[in-house]
């Protein structure tokens, strides 16, 4: 409790402020502009694991592209407390698919996004070891299962010790056991680096299991419609009665929250 | 009875394993060609089609005592130079035209014009404009090959997986590294296809260029043999070059390809 209180009072240099007035995209067929995001404001304290939950097509990927700096055309401000922007610092990213280079080995796939100093290569190896892939260090992605490929992608996301880590529904289309294992591994690495994490998902149970906090987004043009703190101790269990009660209570209070209405 | 059946099975096994080994089949195919050649030469019995034996004797004679190695070297040098220029220019233009839509529209007409201009026309024009010299010869050969390389590389560039490039962008990989490690590897199969098609086309055109306007090289010698009606020497010189090209294919191109495709075969 005390810790959280401190978090609120003391600003850290990499607390993230997001204030988007509008983000629109051009509809190529009709030659008109549509708003993907409108009036979205939130602050994420440094080191928080924040989940974003919203209906499909609510502009979650658009938001991640803005945060990562892939897309810079926005009316609004995205910056850290110290005035820098996320793109000034290392960023980690995990896509819906593993997106590994098929022509590189596991080790090369992780280290290729660093400057490949001997220190960074050693760090890549450590991460691969932590992902339980030491035996596959020199294997090619085509030799790995889908779950293992995602473990490589997790290692790659952490390899630059990013200030912020963006995950775009990284565990969809995996079986439950594999997804559970990967979530535990993600938490393990996050605990060792304490990065700020923004994790996009449409699975409320997954968000509650992982996050310190969940932001619920509306349908497009999207904005934050609900901000839920998850004050549960870690390590958490996947099937926790307390968590399930919280979920049921939330759904009872806001039956349509998952389709983006409150 | 049992013995005969046993023999039969054994025989089948032998032919099966013989044809399963691809080297055996290759040797068989080569011997068959030699046999057809020998028989035809024997039946025709004329200088127009010399026998394999005659050709081989001239081949070794020319190689050891004659000028064959000199002319072979000259031709190889021209092939190498024209090949390198055509690959570099063709790949550069292919990537540029594959990724920039407006540039493609701008240059596409010129490209089709060049692609469909007969090799002979390009060669004659180069000799007329630049004179009967080495630069004209190399330019003519390169110009003949560039449009083909361009087509292949442009297709490759259009097939690039943008999602892989996005990975480089979000992890802020610098431009040079992005090109070498994220872009080019996706293009390798296309570059190899262009190179393989290129080398066989180029050496054929080099011979024509030499025949029309140079005073050395295999093409020049072939013209000489044609005038003297020396078909056996013509065969011997052709054999020398084909041998080199087979060597290039198996000792250089195939190993490079195998290395680049290591991740596929694994």
Structure, briefly:
The complex is a heterodimer of chains A (262) and B (266). With 262 residues, chain A is α/β, with parallel strands linked by helices. Chain A has helices spanning 2-9, 60-68, 106-111, 118-130, 146-158, 176-193, 204-210, 241-253, and strands at residues 16-27, 32-44, 49-53, 75-80, 91-94, 164-168, 196-201, 213-217, 224-229.
Model description:
- The complex is a heterodimer of chains A (262) and B (266).
- Chain A is α/β, with parallel strands linked by helices.
- Chain A has helices spanning 2-9, 60-68, 106-111, 118-130, 146-158, 176-193, 204-210, 241-253; strands at 16-27, 32-44, 49-53, 75-80, 91-94, 164-168, 196-201, 213-217, 224-229.
- In chain A, the strands form two sheets. Chain A has a six-stranded mixed β-sheet with strand order 5-6-7-3-8-9, with helices on both faces. In chain A, strands 2-1-4 form a three-stranded antiparallel β-sheet, covered by helices on one side.
- In chain A, helix 4 crosses helix 5 and helix 5 (146-158) packs parallel to helix 6.
- The radius of gyration of chain A is 19 Å and the shape is globular.
- With 266 residues, chain B is mainly alpha-helical.
- Helices cover 88% and strands 0% of the residues of chain B.
- In chain B, helix 4 packs antiparallel against helix 5 (101-116) and helix 7 (134-158) runs antiparallel to helix 9 (175-213).
- Chain B is flat, with a radius of gyration of 24 Å.
- Classes of the chains: A alpha/beta (262), B mainly alpha (266).
- The A-B interface holds A 68-70, 87, 90-93, 95, 97, 99, 101-104, 112-113, 139-143, 156, 160, 166 and B 163-164, 166-173, 177, 181-182, 185, 188, 260, 262-264, 266.
* CATH topology term of the largest domain in chain A: Rossmann fold
Q: How many helices of chain B?
A: 12
Radius of gyration of chain B: 24 Å
* Residues in helix, % of chain B: over 70%
């Amino acid at each position: 409790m005390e810790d959280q209180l401190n978090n609120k009072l003391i600003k850290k240099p990499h607390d993230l402020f997001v204030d988007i007035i509008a983000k629109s995209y051009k509809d190529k067929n009709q030659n008109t502009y549509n708003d993907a995001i409108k009036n979205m404001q939130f602050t994420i304290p440094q080191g928080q694991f924040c989940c974003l939950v919203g209906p499909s097509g609510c502009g979650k990927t658009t938001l991640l592209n803005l945060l990562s700096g892939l897309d810079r055309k926005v009316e609004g401000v995205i910056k850290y407390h110290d005035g820098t922007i996320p793109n000034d610092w290392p960023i980690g990213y995990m896509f819906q698919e593993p997106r590994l280079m098929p022509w590189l080995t596991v080790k090369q796939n992780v280290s290729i996004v660093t400057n490949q100093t001997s220190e960074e290569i050693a760090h890549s190896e450590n991460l691969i070891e932590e992902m339980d892939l030491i035996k596959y260090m020199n294997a090619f992605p085509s030799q790995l299962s889908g779950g293992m490929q995602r473990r490589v992608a997790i290692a790659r996301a952490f390899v630059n010790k990013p200030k912020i880590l963006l995950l775009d529904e990284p565990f969809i289309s995996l079986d439950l056991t594999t997804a559970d294992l990967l979530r535990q591994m993600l938490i393990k690495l996050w605990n060792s680096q304490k990065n700020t994490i923004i994790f996009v998902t449409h699975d409320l149970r997954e968000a509650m299991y992982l996050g310190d906090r969940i932001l619920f987004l509306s349908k497009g043009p999207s904005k934050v419609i609900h901000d839920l703190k998850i004050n549960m101790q870690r390590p958490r269990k996947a099937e926790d009665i307390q968590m399930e009660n919280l979920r049921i209570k939330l759904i009872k209070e806001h039956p349509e929250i998952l389709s983006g209405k409150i | 009875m049992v013995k005969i059946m046993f023999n039969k099975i054994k025989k089948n096994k032998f032919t099966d394993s013989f044809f399963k080994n691809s080297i055996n089949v290759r040797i068989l195919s080569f011997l068959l060609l030699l046999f057809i050649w020998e028989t035809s030469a024997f039946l025709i019995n004329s200088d127009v089609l010399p026998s394999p034996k005659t050709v081989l004797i001239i081949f070794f004679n020319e190689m050891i005592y004659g000028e064959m190695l000199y002319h072979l070297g000259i031709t190889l040098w021209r092939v190498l130079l024209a090949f390198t220029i055509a690959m570099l220019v063709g790949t550069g233009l292919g990537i540029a035209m594959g990724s920039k839509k407006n540039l493609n529209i701008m240059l596409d007409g010129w490209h089709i014009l060049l692609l469909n201009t007969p090799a002979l026309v390009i060669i004659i024009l180069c000799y007329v404009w630049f004179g009967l010299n080495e630069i004209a010869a190399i330019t003519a050969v390169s110009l003949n090959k560039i449009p083909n390389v361009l087509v292949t590389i442009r297709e490759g560039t259009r097939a690039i997986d943008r999602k892989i490039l996005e990975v480089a962008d979000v992890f802020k990989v610098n431009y040079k590294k992005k090109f070498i490690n994220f872009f080019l590897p996706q293009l390798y199969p296309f570059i190899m296809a262009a190179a393989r098609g290129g080398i066989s086309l180029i050496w054929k055109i080099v011979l024509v260029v030499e025949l029309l306007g140079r005073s050395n090289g295999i093409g020049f010698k072939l013209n000489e043999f044609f005038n003297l009606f020396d078909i056996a020497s013509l065969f011997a010189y052709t054999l020398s070059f084909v041998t080199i090209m087979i060597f290039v294919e198996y000792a250089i191109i195939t190993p490079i390809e195998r290395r680049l495709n290591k991740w596929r075969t694994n």
